Structure prediction request, 256 residues.
Amino acid sequence: MSKLEIHQIPVLNDNYLYLFKDPQSNNVGIVDPAVSGPVLDKLNELNWTLTHIINTHHHMDHTGANLELKEKTGCVIVGSKEDAARIPGIDIQLVEGDIFEFGTQSAKIFDVSGHTVGHIAYWFEESDALFCGDTLFALGCGRLFEGSPAQMWTSLGKFLKLPDETKIYCAHEYTEANAHFAVTVEPQNKALKLRFDDILKKRAANIPTVPSTIGEEKATNPFLRPDSPDLQSTLGMQGADLVSVFAETRRRKDSF
Ligand code: ZN
Ligand code: FE
Prediction:
C-alpha cells in the first residue's frame, strides 16, 4: 500500500495546516484551513488540485478558509456530524467509528470531545498518521472549552491504543511552552528531560517539533500519564483516580 504524501504548512502565529495527497487517486486534502493564501500557494507549487477539506472542529483558526477554498476549488468539506451546524459548508458528516474513504486510503474516525464537543480525529492507519486537531499536542492537550475532564480523558484514551509509531499531526506548535510546564509536574522523568533539551534546541533554530509520535507522547506527555507516581506525588494525589489526576494536571496548566 502506498502512503499519503503530507506537507506541513505553518500559518498565523503557531498553527499547522496539513496538505496531503493519495498518490494513487490524486485526491488532495487540507486539514483545518485557517487561511486560504498559503494553501493556494502550496497547491500551485505542487501542481495539486484540492478535493477535500478535512475539519477536526469548528474553531475559526481551523475552519476560517472553508468557504473560500470550496468556492475557488469546488472541493468537498468533511467534518463532524455532531458539529455540523458549526462547520461552514460541510458536505460529508462523520461520527465515531466511521471509515472515511479518501481515494485508495481510508481513515478511522474518533470522537474526541473535550476541547470542543463534537471534535473528531482522523486516523490514516496505512500512513501512520493521526490528524487530531486541538485534542493532543506535543507534550500537551487542548484546553477544555466545552467538554469535561472525564470526556477528554476518554478521548485521549483512544489515542493511547494506537501503535507507538503513529505520527501526531496536531494543529499548533505549542511544544516549548508545554515542555516548560511538563518538567515542573514530572521532574524525575528522564525521557522528558532529554526531550525538553531537544525541544529548546529545535525551537531556537525555528525547527518544527511536530509531528511527534504517540510512543514519545506516552513516555513524556503529562496529560497521557496520570498513572505516573512522579506526577501524582507532585500533585499530592498519590493513588487518586486517573480522571482526577488528569483534571488537576489540566487545571494547573491553565494557570501556569
Ligand atoms: Zn481549537
Ligand atoms: Fe486551534
About this structure: The chain has two domains: 5-170, 175-206+215-254. Residues 175-206+215-254 form one domain.
